[in-house]
Write a structure and sequence with these properties.
The chain is built from 2 helices and 2 strands, in the order ααββ. With 64 residues, it is mostly helical. Helix 1 (6-18) crosses helix 2 (23-34).
Length: 64
């Protein structure tokens, strides 16, 4: 868990201004970007619009 810092909030605001993303999602994406997260695992396709964020959709993973 990463605390929400002023830097995260600034990055989240920049994401909201550049792409159509809700504030809670922008905070998650900003935190991932600022902590250099290697993979963002989600089932929300909107995160694919976040530049420089490596997103894997759970729905696209082949299950046995």
């Amino acid at each position: 868990m990463i605390p929400v810092s002023p830097q995260v909030l600034i990055e989240a605001a920049q994401l909201r201004a550049s792409i159509n993303i809700k504030l809670p999602d922008a905070i998650h994406a900003a935190t991932a970007l600022l902590t250099q997260c290697s993979t963002f695992l989600t089932n929300d396709q909107r995160f694919k619009s976040v530049p420089e964020l490596s997103v894997i959709l759970l729905s696209e993973i082949n299950s046995p």
